[in-house]
Task: inverse folding
């Protein structure tokens, strides 16, 4: 069996945990254990069949005099969305360049053959 990449495995584990925490009105399906005052942990089996230790933590933002808690949260959401848009734009540019490079290489090969 091919090994699934770390990025895919970690994203799946996060998704499963958030789904469990946010969408189960009758209680959690995973057995979370208190690790310390800030974190709970759970053991899950990843897509490669390996047991993984996952931690869920709570970070409490400092109070700010220059903005409310709601403003801070919205600011962080907006910053995240901008970063994701930039990543998507760069990925599209790389894909377009790769396609152009491939077409250029194929044209060169045809030229050599002729």
Result:
């Amino acid at each position: 069996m091919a090994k699934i990449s770390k990025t895919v495995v970690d994203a799946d584990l996060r998704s499963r945990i958030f789904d469990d925490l946010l969408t189960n009105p009758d209680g959690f399906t995973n057995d979370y254990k208190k690790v310390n005052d800030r974190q709970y942990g759970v053991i899950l089996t990843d897509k490669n069949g390996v047991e993984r230790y996952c931690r869920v933590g709570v970070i409490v933002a400092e109070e700010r005099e220059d903005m409310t808690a709601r403003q801070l949260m919205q600011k962080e959401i907006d910053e995240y969305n901008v970063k994701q848009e930039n990543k998507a734009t760069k990925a599209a540019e790389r894909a377009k360049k790769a396609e152009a490079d491939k077409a250029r290489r194929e044209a060169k090969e045809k030229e050599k053959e002729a």
Observations:
- The chain is about 55% helix and 15% strand.
- The chain has two domains: 1-60, 64-114.
- The beta strands are 33-34, 39-45, 51-57.
